[in-house]
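Quick one, T. Sequence first:
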Amino acid sequence: MTSLSWKSSTGWVTDMGRVQLSAAVRALLDPELLARLRSDPYSRYTCCVCGQPGRTDIEPASVIVERYRLPAARIRLAHGHCAASQIVEIAAEAPEAGGFGGMVSKSAVLEYATEPQVRPLLILEPLTELSEPTPGGERRNLLISGLLDRGFTMLRTAGQFPPPADGWLLQLDAAGARLLASDHTVVYAGPLDRPTSWQQLARQTGACVVLIGTVGLYARQDDELIPAELRQLLHQAARAGELAGALVRTQNAS
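Structure tokens:
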């Protein structure tokens, strides 16, 4: 299908057959996410403006990025006739919502060189990746940058033990987990499958290693990963500069 472009109030917009992207929005989105937006699983949506259903295979939808603090962001779709593709800056924490802007979670128990060697891990992979070009022509991952600004550490290997992030808190209850940043921004709130060994370690140490980045969990949600496979995924993410981590205090519901 031939792509068409035209000028709007928010810059040049490209009609990709399914979605309309302003130049600013296109510069933020990762190519993999752009492909995901054009795929069949995302062909049906609810317009974030009028609340009515839409289908991108019938009428192009506008991609709207709501950018919150951290920085965190949520990608929403609107009928092309309801709103133009744009970035909306919101001076508040991101809402607790799944789908675009959500995260895939996984608990794990891995060994480190430091005592205590066996540690509980919470691994989070964002479903939405946002980046922006740097003056040098490279791309900067906005989520990773926000995490580093708030005490997380960029990891270079899967075996690197991250230092504590002051003020961060991982709340655990029967419903799942809630990760709070030092400014009380909700970074993650959702389900977390926790084996007995994981829960015992979290209670004993009062802390959890939290790793956030593009690990590959999204593509392997239904796979049973052995520790060696998971460590390899984490190592690849670290080597690619896509993994941030921190030791975070845990709090169990009474």
